[in-house]
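Re: the 411-residue chain
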Amino acid sequence: MPAAQALPSADGLWTGLRLAPGAAPGLALAPDAEAAIVVRQGLVQWIGKAAEIPAEHAALPRHDGGRALVTPGLIDCHTHLVYGGQRANEFAMRLAGVSYEDVAKAGGGIASSVRATREASEDALFSSASARLEHLLAEGVCAIEIKSGYGLALEHERKQLRVARRLGEAYGVTVRTTFLGAHALPPEYAGRSGDYIDMVCNNMLPALAAEGLIDAVDVFCERIAFSLEETERVFKAAQALGLPVKLHAEQLSDMGGAALAARYGALSCDHIEHLSSAGIAAMRAAGTVAVLLPGAYYTLRDTQLPPIAGLRAAGVPMAVSTDHNPGTSPALSLLLMLNMACTLFRLTVPEALAGVTVHAARALGLQATHGVIGVGLPANFVLWNVGEAAELAYWFGARPLRAVVRQGRMG
């Protein structure tokens, strides 16, 4: 893929478009009405009916959309994209009946990815992550979160986060970096989780924040990871540095992590299969987004569904993401996650589409610039060769993308 700066500008008048429902809030067009979008200097300058294009834009260079359906650029709001190696052997072990927890206790799981990541150079990590990112970009992803958490030592966490920043620069995609130093206990700290959390809070987090490598802070709060007390220590350290928090919450059990995260104004709580009604209420009060990760649910053959009805009734926004990681969700298709969110979690098509656009933007703190198509916003939108929006969740294995505009350039 060419360097971001070499990609052609998307400036001009985009015609022959059909806007997907909700793509441009406040703009009411009939489903089959022809729409147009004006892009200037990488920003959306005008959007509306093709028959009403203002005269000052009529002479701009034209891009014919061929009656394609247009959505905002998709957002993959929870990924672990940068890591060394892969874990297909653990996939086979789980198929043979070994539990995720038993794999972790035997030295597999996150620990095996930590070993591979520590052994890999920054350039090697960039190369492998680039190949994975290109799969996601080919499906219209315009913004992505990339977590650390496979280094578990300052130099290796730094290496992951530096690669994440490089990916954004090289591919012209919005990247939000999340420090997940409290992902697992590294082997050199076996039996000393408190000491490791001290290292995370007092050394790693301040150093990486000072280098401008962190946009948010996450913790894996679970019985096989870190306790509520340890999680809160990390949250306090993040708060002192002015960094927003999020949480891997209630994936394997109800730890009460969502309520804790909500008290700290968390951007999101992710996984949440075991989320309680009290957790839902806390998230609603805090405006915290629920991030649904059907790929992990599917891969782990889980049977505990997230409380979709409760979240829906409470009005908690629900985002959808790949959770791309080498162990429990080796997913490289956000469109497949749309299908899974509908078929496994029973989201409606509008809910699922909002989950990879407007709500995913909010889960990353990007709601002011991403997730919708609007005047004054960066031009991030996708043209699809489909007849209706439901097809984006209906097909799996197809890539109906016609064209993508990413940060004002044609990707």
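The chain has a mean pLDDT of 96.
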